[in-house]
Amino acid sequence: MTNDQRKPVKVILHLDMNSFFASVEQSYNPALKGIPMAVAGNPKERRGILVTCSYEARALGIYTTMSVGEAKRICSDIVIVPPDFEKYRIASNAVFSILRTYTDLVEPVSIDEAYIDITHIGGLTNAVQIATNMQQRILHELDLQCSIGIAPNKFLAKTASDMKKPMGITILRKRQVPNLLWPLPVIEMHGIGQSTEKRLHEIGISTIGELANAEELIVKAKLGKNGLRLRNRANGIDDRPVDPEAADERKSVGSSTTLAIDETELEPCLKIFRFLAKKVAKRLHDKGLAGQVVMIQIRTADWHNLTRSRTVMNAVYKEDDIYKEAISLFKLHWKGEPIRLLGITVSNVFPIHELYEQLSFDNFEKYAKEEKMDLLVSELEKKFGPHAVKRGLNER
């Protein structure tokens, strides 16, 4: 095989916007630049939680998830602004539009990050030049900062983008993994949270290097297939392609059903909405998504289609919340016509880890406990089948 016939070395960029929500606020209001500032779910409530903060605030020891009260004790002059998610969505779309002027192989993975495959538009030879050009265009056209990782796969590119912030460009090669990554504790590795860290510690794995060199059977026995994926990534191996269509799949999640008869009674319709809400919630859970718009579809017996939607303050992903919004819309807009089809769609979806509410310490703890319980139930159902676990009722 000649050099010309060899498969080109894959080159993937991971672009990560720096302190995105705070940076967007600073872009809209230049008076916020160069000062300690933060975005918080409820700025007037001292127990409100910081969604993000500027680098000036971070330099003082202020960080995301800290309460407004704690932040003000560190810096009494910190400026707190409420979140404006629509503003952030507009800025996010503008960033991705710039990236798509280089290649169609752009995969947004959250509101403020994306993978870009530049293998066939310059490859490694021109990677730094392309990344620099992207970074400068986003800065000059949108007044926003970003960091970019350059690597042969997604995992290493994402790892690289974290190495220098703000406004960093970092190349991470597979051969550098033993020296740069292996000495680090496993919690520093993307894809490993506190729960996985604890389980790895139970089998004597504390560093990324120990995970990379662990026996496959031991890791699989403890963590299943995900353990093997993590072990591969600890060795710098990740064959996931950049998939532009994956982003399209995240725009909305829905389900609809054609009724056995043309229904005119409320109660049977509510049961169908409960069924649909359960299906949509499961799909959102499987994809790790939440959404801010709930839409219902009603098709009448004479084939008239009606859609109605509502934007919710706190994004939904649980069955009960989806059902509540759907039936509220239905009761408001259904005029009693015979119904042939009903549907629910949750749109404006995004990865659930971005879900920030106006949290106080009290309900932050409540939601954290609920999330842990949801994950436990999910794991048990994977092992023993759907509906194997049912929540009990509190006895008073």
From TrEMBL:
Binds 2 magnesium ions per subunit. GO terms for molecular function: DNA-directed DNA polymerase activity. Residues 12-193 form the UmuC domain. PROSITE patterns: UMUC. InterPro entries: DNA/RNA_pol_sf, DNA_pol_Y-fam_lit_finger_sf, DNA_pol_Y-fam_little_finger, DNA_polymerase-Y, DNApol_IV, PolY_HhH_motif, Rev_trsase/Diguanyl_cyclase, UmuC. Mg(2+) binds at D16, D112. The record marks F21 as: Substrate discrimination. Its cofactor is Mg(2+). Its EC number is 2.7.7.7. The keyword Phosphoprotein does not apply. It is found in: Cytoplasm. Keywords: Cytoplasm, DNA damage, DNA repair, DNA replication, DNA-binding, DNA-directed DNA polymerase, Magnesium, Metal-binding, Mutator protein, Nucleotidyltransferase, Transferase. The active site is at E113. Gene3D superfamilies: 3.30.70.270, 3.40.1170.60, 5' to 3' exonuclease, C-terminal subdomain, DNA polymerase, Y-family, little finger domain. Pfam families: IMS, IMS_C, IMS_HHH. It catalyses: DNA(n) + a 2'-deoxyribonucleoside 5'-triphosphate = DNA(n+1) + diphosphate. Belongs to the DNA polymerase type-Y family. PANTHER family: DNA POLYMERASE KAPPA, DNA REPAIR POLYMERASE UMUC / TRANSFERASE FAMILY MEMBER. HAMAP family: DNApol_IV. Monomer. Poorly processive, error-prone DNA polymerase involved in untargeted mutagenesis. Copies undamaged DNA at stalled replication forks, which arise in vivo from mismatched or misaligned primer ends. These misaligned primers can be extended by PolIV. Exhibits no 3'-5' exonuclease (proofreading) activity. May be involved in translesional synthesis, in conjunction with the beta clamp from PolIII. This is DNA polymerase IV. It comes from Sporosarcina quadrami. The gene is dinB.
